[in-house]
Design brief:
The protein contains 3 helices and no strands. By secondary structure, it is an all-alpha fold.
Amino acid sequence: MSFGRPPTFSSFQATAPDRGSFPLDHEGECSTQMQVYLSCLQKSANNSVTCRQESKGYLECRMSRGLMQREDWKSLGMADVQNLENSCTTCSRDSNLDNEKKK
């Protein structure tokens, strides 16, 4: 019996996610970098070109914490973008401080 699914699907096989899809940041490890990037977008009328440093900082945070696969900056189109001074060194610490303040 199929119980809610068509009988043609006798066996289901999971597949790896498509390139470009990555886990959500449930723990908020990179929420500081995300807020910096979103704030930049808001200030620049959603012109992402002006926020490339912030975008790179956010992606670096995600890659360093295993929230997305490590990629070469050239393949992401960001080889020419310089890093922000505190691009990812404090994102987890800042997130933990923000969480402590909320308690």
